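Sequence in, structure out. Go.
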Amino acid sequence: MADLYLKALESERKSLWAACRLKGLAKGTPERLRIQELDRLLAEHKARKAG
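Output:
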């Protein structure tokens, strides 16, 4: 079965990252902070799923 939560997190991260690259946003902006939060959530989810 597809992991919809994982797909949603990855999709949001990908779109935010593209927007940051396009706009040239610096570190510390809300978008970049959200990407860091998504990275943490992805790592936690993958760790929970692995064991």
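Check: Helices lie at 4-23, 30-50. The radius of gyration is 12 Å.
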